[in-house]
Amino acid sequence: MDNFVLALLIFAVLVVFMSVKSVPQGMEYTVERFGKYINTLTPGLNIIVPIIDRIGNKMIMMEQVMDVPSQEVITKDNAMVTVDGVVFYQVMDAAKAAYEVRQLDWAILNLVMTNIRTVMGSMDLDELLSRRDDINAKLLSVVDDATTPWGIKVTRIEIKDIAPPKDLVEAMGRQMKAERLKRASILEAEGLRQSEILRAEGAQQAAILEAEGRKEASYRDADARERLAQAEARATLMVSEAIGKGDVQAINYFVAQKYIEALKDIGASNNSKLVFMPLDSSSVIGALGGIGELAKEALSKKS
């Protein structure tokens, strides 16, 4: 009797132990009864019917990452490139992920690799190298739609590396070098053109300023000549009036002035070196005396 009670107690402990299931955070367990799915256990303590119920699949509900191995892809312009990538996905429905597809990781990997060949094979090489974001977006849209019935959410697909053949890389390098040399030549020519334009504008401005200077100098020279002419006219008028009054000193002043100007012109000539001229010194002195007398008369009239 004691043995039976002990056995019954042990059986009860085992039943309780088998019926209580602890699910860790980030996991979900599917429960099967006689091989058929009945419900899903969430994180925490859960109770199942022992013996007839069992844990079917333990699904990771956290976001997971999967590397996509390298594969060769033929582009639209018949260029062979080697491509690899990475996929981020998350199980949203544990039951669908467990029972709608067999070997979930393998199925997702093959689906991604197939669509990489499809999407990238419809593009030129230049598009592959310059529109990587567009490729990622197209892959994400196609693969996410295809995995929705599996209870999977594909959050991101990234192409890690696109490697063209070595000879194609060398050709692209030569092309890039030629483009850079072309841009450098254009920039240099543009710089020379701008320099010539600035130099021409500077010369034009200098010519304008020089012409303005000559114009201003001409105005000033003309004004000075006009003033000199007016002064000479006034002097001639005064001499004429003095001569009209019979003033001999005025005549002497006029003749002496012209006499001295003639001697000055002869002395300033480039061809004249030494000139011997008979001069009547008494006439010159008398003329100078006449100039003095005229000055005294003018001062006495003002006073």
From TrEMBL:
Residues 18-176 form the Band domain. One of its GO terms (cellular component) is side of membrane. It is found in: Membrane. It is a single-pass membrane protein. Keywords: Membrane, Transmembrane, Transmembrane helix. InterPro entries: Band7/mec-2_domain, Band_7, Band_7/SPFH_dom_sf, Band_7/stomatin-like_CS, Stomatin_HflK_fam. It comes from the Bacteria. CDD domains: SPFH_paraslipin. Belongs to the band 7/mec-2 family. PANTHER family: STOMATIN-LIKE PROTEIN 2, MITOCHONDRIAL. This is Protein QmcA. It comes from Candidatus Methylobacter titanis.
